[in-house]
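Help!! Second protein's tokens look totally different from the first
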Amino acid sequence: MKTFLFQGDSITDASRDDENNFNFGLGCGYALLLASEIEKKNKGEIKFINRGNSGDRITDVYARIKEDIINLKPDYMSILIGVNDVSHELTMNCGVSPKKFRMIYEMLIEEITESLPEIKIFILEPFVLKGTATEKLWNEFNSEVRKMAEISRQVAQKYDFDFVPLQDKFDELSSDGDMGCWSVDGIHPTSAGHQVIKEELQKVIENYI
């Protein structure tokens, strides 16, 4: 049996609970949506684990690399990280700079692939929309998250892993001014927003699963 690991922050966490319970262990977001569809097609051939943690920055993911990534020995892993690195800096002065974000991201990937040389990693693009959590510092949020997005793309390219673009898709969908359909606050997706992430990630992983 193959193992697929979802890794990231609150967008991935999506109120997950006990990983032994399929419905609650995967949360109520894109991880559950994607796993449900693949499970239907593959009939139990793939085990899904969600280790997204609300509030995580790249440094937090790296800090739990052994317990929540390497020790789980996933064959596939998706990771969506970067928005808290920005938001924590703008609102609490405890974020992660773009330079450090790149350094830690590369360290993370290198250590994972050293321990799990056959793993397939899917790097999702961090994204941001204008909403209640971002509008007061919109210029800063928009500029800095896009820096993290570009770094994520470059990390994927450097290590020859698939990159899943999301910002342009959400910009396109919200171009009519109805951002609320896709995000509750500019950072966290609605159920429709999670469906968008699921669809964009699925486009990439269907080449492997």
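Here's the second one for comparison:
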Amino acid sequence: MSEAKAKTKAAHKSGDVTDLILHDILAGVLAPGVWLKQIDLEQRYQSTRPEVRRALDRLVQRRLVQHVPNRGYHVFEPDGRQATEVSDIRVILETAVADKIVANASELTVKKLRTLAHRFDDLIMNGTMIELYEANLAFHHALLALCGNRELVNLVTEIRQRTSSAPVSQWQTRARIEQSSREHHQMIDALAAGDVEELKRVTIVHIRQP
């Protein structure tokens, strides 16, 4: 069973409809702009109408879903301005802790990051887009966690969700995916070399790449 399917199965067992819908939005299964019919979601996630409604309202609060009075709910579709502003915020936050990330890096953590980067590489050829997306998140979470500030890691994770994070919008071409892969390894190389400025440079390029 793939990692993505295992997570979905576990989420079904826990009955957390919010996490199920969130997963499908971030994985591109529910694309930006798609209208979310509650009866369809009930059947899809084997849940009750009140559970689905509560889940949608939670996602509205997180700006992943938008509620239109008298029409219903749809997956939030950010405009270019918001995407640019979110990228600006990420650059500020992630480069601000680059020195701490480098200072806290060890041979073991560098090796772990390299393993996560290689998993992303392998999935380019052999995985699904959902698996590729989740491998990318795992790499960035592990990298940022080296800063030692859990609240900042959680904040960046939340901010990433404010724009379309679906693979279909992130990686529209094979060249775009391979560029992300190269930048993962460049970040690791900067860590291994203890080069804070290089880590900042690659981080900025990685966040802002079109």
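Reply: Different proteins will give different token patterns, so don't panic. Residues 107-126 form the longest helix (20 residues).
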